[in-house]
Amino acid sequence: MIKITNLNLTYPNTNIAVLKNMNFHLHTGEFVTVIGRSGSGKSTLLDLMMGLVNSSSGTIEKRNKLTMGYVFQRPALLAWRNVLKNTALPLQIEKMPKAEREEKAMQALRKVGLGYAATLYPHQLSGGMSQRVAIARALVQDPDLLLMDEPFSSIDPLLRENLNINLLKLWSRMKKTVLFVTHSINEAVLLSDRILILEEGCFIEEFKIDLPRPRTFDTPQSSKFLNYVKTIHGCLPCEPNMARELKF
């Protein structure tokens, strides 16, 4: 689906290299997670893939007519638009007729379990609901690839676990390819087929996560899951929030 070859990014007029000689493939139907410390280049990689910034050198080869949706760290919902109209915004920008775009938006909201909330406004939503609206907005154009930049990082741990399981169910139904960014080792292991470790702009390790699907709330209790967490933890220069997750 996507092949990245010798990708480099240095900020203009500086010597700050954000990404260095990056190479990887993303295959159709995979759920791949990039994990690393703050400032390692995770969000920048997604911005490059989405075309929001340009690389200094290297190539990003995409399958012909590949479409992408982007879920940002914060929902960025427009306060004066209700949930339905926030979800339909990408289709409105494309000048799709109102009735058609609102029907597609309602379908996307139902996929994330928020069909009942279509007439609510952002100030009436919880944090988890707001992020689910953002996911629906990213899905409304039926993209081939979903880019997700720490979408649940600001959500409390119990709700975050629920959102992760719901995301897995949605991914299983829709058969989308997902590239997910997180600081959370546990989250990465629960969600992923593969995990890529990013450090100072380079991929330093790759792990194939051989856990049975569908994954459930019980999956993190298995010894195999905990072994993956321990192994990946050992590859990362540790940040405090990563260290807190390592519990046995």
Q: How would you describe the overall organization of this protein?
A:
By secondary structure, the chain is an alpha/beta fold. It has a domain at 77-143. The chain is built from eight helices and nine strands. The strands form two sheets. The chain has a six-stranded mixed β-sheet, with helices on both faces. A three-stranded antiparallel β-sheet has the order 2-1-4, with helices on one face. Helix 3 packs across helix 4 (127-139). It starts with a strand and ends with a helix. The model has no long low-confidence stretch (mean pLDDT 91).
Blueprint of the fold:
Layout: E1 2-10, E2 17-26, E3 31-36, H1 42-50, E4 57-62, E5 68-71, H2 83-93, H3 98-111, H4 127-139, E6 145-149, H5 157-174, E7 177-182, H6 185-191, E8 194-199, E9 202-208, H7 223-235, H8 240-245
Which terms would index this structure?
248 residues; alpha/beta; six-stranded mixed sheet; three-stranded antiparallel sheet; 9 strands; 37% helix; 24% strand; globular
Principal-axis shape: globular
Secondary structure category? alpha/beta
What percent strand?
15-25%
Oligomer: single chain
* Uncertain segments: none
Residue-averaged pLDDT = 91
Number of strands: 9
Helix-strand string: EEEHEEHHHEHEHEEHH
- Specify the biggest β-sheet: 6 strands, mixed
Portion in helices: 25-40%
Terminal CA distance = 38 Å
Biggest sheet: strands side by side, in what order?
5-6-7-3-8-9
